[in-house]
Design goal:
With 450 residues, the chain is an alpha/beta fold. 29% of the residues lie in helices and 26% in strands. It contains 10 helices and 18 strands. The longest helix is centred in the first third of the chain and has 21 residues, at 34-54.
Length: 450
Amino acid sequence: MQHKIINSSAILLFFSLLLLQPVATFSQDNNISKEDAKKKKELLKTLKTQVDEEDINITVKSVEITKFPEIKLIIEAYNRMGEPLDSISPSHLTIIENGREFPATSVEKIPVANNLPWDFVFVIDITGSMQPQIDGVIENLNSFTNGLRSRGIDYRLGLILFGDNVEKVYQPTGDVDVFLSWINKVRAFGGGDEKENALEALLASAYRIKYRDEANKVAILITDADYHKKGEHGDGTTAETTQSIIDKLCKQDLRVFSIVPQKIKNYQQISENTRGTTYDIAYPFSNVLENFTRQITNLFLVTYHSNKDVIPDSIEIGLFDQARSTIVKKTIPIVELGRKLIIENLLFKTGKYDLPAFVSELNILAEFMQSKPAITVMIEGHTDSVGSNELNDVLSERRADAVKNYLVNMGVKPNRIQTTGFGKRKPIASNDSEFGRSLNRRTEIVILSK
C-alpha cells in the first residue's frame, strides 16, 4: 500500500490508511456523579438524532504506535457533503480504550507542503441520463485544478468512460486542455437497463491506469445508476462482487470517491472501505469538487497517551463538537490484516543495511508479536533512487533480513516473519531532496495473519 508524506514531523512512520464506519458516542469525565452521567445519557439520545441528520464523519488516515504509549492519529473530519471542519479543539476529542477515556493532548492542523503527487482518474458513466454530470465536470474542471494547484498539489488527470461496458480508458495527463479534449467529445447515450458496469470500470481504474509510483491514487466515480454484480443477468456482465472489488482496490491502494444518488447505498460501502467518501449527485457539482479538494488537504494530527502496558487491539476516537452539538465515534483496529508500519529508526544511510544494537521501536514490535503469538508479518525493504535497480533490489532485501534477524534475536520465531525487497520502486517521498531520499530508505512491517 502506497503511503503519503504529509508533514515531515508527522509521517516518518505510520500505519496504513483506514476508513471506518461512524457511530454515536459521548465524552464524559471519569469521575462524574451518577446523576450527571444519567443526564449525559439522556442528552446522548437527543444528540444522536442530530448526528444522523448532520452525518459528520471522521476518517482515520493513519495510526502511529512506535512511540507507544504515545499514540498519534491522522484524521479528516467532514460532513456528508465532504465539507471539512476547519478546526478541532483538543477539548472536543476523547480517545477511549476498553471503556476508559483519555483526553487528546494536542491537535495540530497538518500543512500540505510535503504532499506526494496525486493521480486522479474520473470514472464516468456515459449513459443517457448522465449528460448534465458530464457537463458539470467540463464546466468545473479548471476551478478544480486551480484549487489543487493553489494547495501545492502536483496532479495528473485520467479518464475512464463506461456504460454496460468499459468504453474508453485515457491515461493520466498533467495538461488540463488535453483532458478537456477527451471529455468534450463525450455525449451520453444508450442505457438499456437500470444498472451499469461501474465495477468493471473501477477494475480498469485499478489495473489499466499507469499511475506514478510515488503518487496518491484516487478514482472519482460519477454515476446515477446502481451496478451489475457477479451472477446477475443484464446488458453488462462482470465477475466482480462488492467485496471482491473492494479487495482489489485496496490491494492497489486506490481510494474511491463516489458522486452518486444518495439512495444507492452500495457505493458508500466501496468508498468507505477504500478510505473515500460519497457525495450526493444532486449537490451542485462545483461545490462537490471544491469540497473534495478541501477534504483531501484538510488533515489533523491528534496525539494522546495510553496507560496500557501493551499495545491495545483497538482504540476509539470520539469527536464532540460543542458548538454544533454533534458527536461521532470511530473504532480503530490496531491488529488489522494488511496494516503497515514504518519504523522511524530504520531510515538507513545510503547503501547501508546494518542496524544498531538497540532499536526501541523494534523492541516494541517484538513485544507486540510475543503478546500475540498468532500474528505473522511481512518485512518489506525499500531504498532511495541512488544506484541501479539491481543494486537496490539486493540492498532492500538485506535491510528486510536485518530487521528479521533483530526480531528473531528478541525471541520471535523465524517462521512468523517473511521478508521481501522492493528496491527503489515504491517511494513515499520525492527523491529530489536528501530529506525525501532519507524517507525512502525505510523498512515496512505488514501484518499477514492474526
